[in-house]
């Protein structure tokens, strides 16, 4: 039973996300960001009573929403997204090490930058935060460079 479309059109998803961000500022004067929600959830899990409860619900909702989209959508589809590396002859263990290292670097970067890509790129830039503009420019430039390097290493064309 596939109730949901394969992909929500950008002209629907973009304005809805914008309304969510603006609405959250109007209602709670708070930015929307996944790493902030993660940090608040970890604080709550440790028993800290000084947490922002809606962020804990938001973090849980990320997983619940993903599960609902899987159930109402095309079902479970196992995708790795690293076929270019496999096709270039990289072993699954090496790919897993590269992905793990990337995840650690991303987590460290989000912590050092004071937020994640969604927090800086969507909310911080909307607030005209110079730090968010610098962070977002760094995220994007790094993504372009790493994509170029991986394309060359896996035998693709630029």
N→C terminal distance: 39 Å
Question: Structural class, from helix and strand content?
Answer: mainly alpha
Number of helices: 7
Q: How many discrete structural domains?
A: 2
Helix content estimate: over 70%
| Computed CA radius of gyration, to the nearest angstrom | 18 Å
Estimate what percentage of residues fall within beta strands.
under 5%
Mean pLDDT: 85
Q: Write the H/E string, N to C.
A: HHHHHHH
Q: What oligomeric state best describes the polypeptide chains here?
A: single chain
Largest sheet composition: none
Shape designation: globular
Q: Pick out the low-confidence regions.
A: none
Number of strands: 0
Fold and architecture overview:
By secondary structure, the protein is an all-alpha fold. The protein has 2 domains: 1-78, no CATH class; 81-158, no CATH class. It has 7 helices and no strands. It has helices at residues 10-28, 34-45, 53-72, 83-87, 92-113, 117-126, 130-153. Helix 2 (34-45) crosses helix 3 (53-72) and helix 6 (117-126) packs across helix 7 (130-153). The chain is globular, with a radius of gyration of 18 Å. The mean pLDDT is 85.
Question: What attributes does this structure have?
Answer:
158 residues; mainly alpha; 7 helices; 71% helix; 0% strand
